[in-house]
Design brief:
diguanylate cyclase activity, Alpha-Beta Plaits, 5-stranded parallel beta sheet, CheY-like_superfamily, Rev_trsase/Diguanyl_cyclase, phosphoprotein, GGDEF_dom, Beta-Lactamase, 3 domains, 13 helices, alpha/beta
Length: 491
């Protein structure tokens, strides 16, 4: 699999040489660096990389170039690659040009020439981490969607073969298993031999039967350059063998580190579905024989509900295992408190070096406890997810957004004055004030209180600004909520 590519664009060869030297020294083990001397050459290079399926996480572009300026180039790139991040590197851009690039092209950062190498590499590292985290979140969501869909099959009135076919189709829809194939085996009556029950995918080379094994297996099968990767997982329900799952990925390069863990959770869910289907079949037969015994039938139904509860526990356990990304809040997919403060302090160091304005916003949902009390905690979780999406939508790509805990959020806004931060806060407050969040037939309205503090150029860390913003937040709370307050300047 080709390394992801970082593209550097500048009309001065000496600048490109310097960029490639610094980037290659720091990131060559994971990324490839490509150079372009004009906007037109860059767009041609991007088309070639897209056609070859190569990932492009970052563009570093000069502002003043012949033919097409850097900000216009980044706008064109954003249309082709909306997920790709961009850094503008120039000594001639005005504040208006930088602001235009931030707004139109989603500029991640701006660095002035001549740059400080350590600051430049820190900025690039932050951008690459941000891009990787976003991709990992998307992958985690795909994994959760597959697991949730498989477990939901237990509630549908379909035959077991239909459920198993739907489960395999959902599994192979993931990009990590693109063009792969999978098969499910069930044990015969003697509980010794596996018999092929259903298969799905591009190939049909699975054995009709094979001995059962309780050992998981993963191996790469040589096959030219593709090297397909096979997985064998026994289907065990509370230690009882039900069958086996066999999966063949077209290329081992597509198999991420989390795929074996996903398949293990997937196999556990499949075993639960098979066991529940068999249990329901036996229960129906038993009830047909003992319909006259109401008490017995009630007990059997209770057993069925217990089995469903166990399946729900499987889903909860699967979600716990997939919350592997420690820097992200598992509910809202925003940065968690620890990682947010780490990034904020890194951004503060950069702002201090260049004396750039930076602001800190503290946000707290008003009367959120009443949502949980009136509609339940599931409704509260849904509200927090929707608020997180709204914060991302209203903020710039350069802003850092985190969930500090409970219903409290924070935004660090680089290159932002108090006036700009106030406009952002008012935009967020107004939108949430108008927003109606629907959940389970209920319409939920919320407001938010916000405190804003300017980060001082000499502050050693973010704690001081965070404390001032927190005091301003409490001022908003004390003056009736649904209000934006600005922290008083330190004397």
């Amino acid at each position: 699999m080709k390394k992801p590519v970082i593209i550097c664009v500048d009309d001065e060869k000496i600048v490109l040489t310097s960029l490639k030297s610094q980037l290659s020294h720091q990131f060559s083990s994971k990324y490839q660096v490509e150079l372009a001397e004009s906007a037109e050459e860059t767009l041609e290079l991007i088309d070639e990389l897209i056609e070859s399926g190569t990932d492009i996480p970052l563009i570093i572009a000069d502002y003043v170039m012949p033919g097409m300026y850097g900000d216009e180039l980044l706008v064109r790139i954003k249309e082709k690659l909306p997920e790709t991040l961009s850094i503008m590197l120039t000594g001639q851009a005005t504040a208006e040009a930088v602001g235009e690039a931030v707004n139109r092209a989603g500029l991640f950062r701006y660095i002035a020439k001549p740059w400080h190498e350590s600051d430049f590499l820190l900025t690039v590292s932050t951008a690459l981490d941000s891009y990787t985290q976003k991709r990992e979140i998307q992958r985690r969501d795909r994994f959760r969607h597959v697991l949730a869909k498989v477990i939901s099959l237990a509630l549908k009135p379909e035959t077991l073969d239909q459920q198993l076919e739907t489960a395999l189709t959902s599994l192979l829809s993931m990009p990590e298993l693109a063009s792969g194939c999978a098969a499910i085996y069930l044990l015969d009556q003697n509980q010794e031999q596996l018999e092929l029950r259903t298969q799905w995918g591009q190939e049909s080379d699975f054995a009709a039967s094979q001995p059962f094994s309780t050992e998981c297996e993963q191996r790469v099968v040589p096959n030219g350059s593709k090297r397909p990767c096979r997985f064998y997982l026994p289907l065990l329900y509370q230690g009882t063998p039900m069958g086996a799952l066999e999966v063949k990925a077209q290329s081992s390069a597509n198999c991420c580190q989390e795929l074996p863990e996903l398949l293990a959770s997937y196999a556990e869910a499949l075993a639960g579905i098979i066991q529940l289907k068999q249990y329901h079949h036996a229960l129906e037969k038993h009830n047909a024989e003992l319909e006259h015994t109401v008490q017995k039938r009630t007990k059997d139904l209770q057993d069925a509900f217990e089995q469903q509860s166990k399946l729900n526990n499987i889903l909860l356990e699967a979600n716990r295992k997939l919350d592997f990304y420690a820097s992200m809040d598992g509910l809202t997919s925003l940065y968690n408190r620890r990682f947010f403060l780490k990034l904020a302090n890194s951004e503060l160091e950069r702002a201090r070096r260049y004396a750039h304005p930076t602001t800190f916003l503290m946000l707290d949902l008003d009367y959120f406890k009443e949502v949980n009390d009136e509609f339940g905690h599931l409704a509260g979780d849904h509200v927090l997810e929707q608020v997180a999406r709204m914060l991302v939508a209203e903020s710039r790509e350069a802003d850092l957004i985190g969930r500090l805990g409970g219903e409290e959020f924070a935004i660090l806004s680089p290159e932002s004055t108090l006036q700009q931060a106030t406009r952002l806060a008012e935009r967020i407050r107004t939108r949430l004030n108008k927003e109606i969040i629907n959940f389970d037939g209920h319409s939920i309205k919320l407001t938010v209180s916000i405190g804003i503090a300017e980060v001082g150029s000499e502050e050693p860390d973010i704690q001081g600004a965070m404390s001032r913003a927190d005091k301003a937040l409490y001022k908003s709370k004390g003056t009736g909520r649904n209000t934006v307050s600005i922290a008083e300047a330190e004397s």
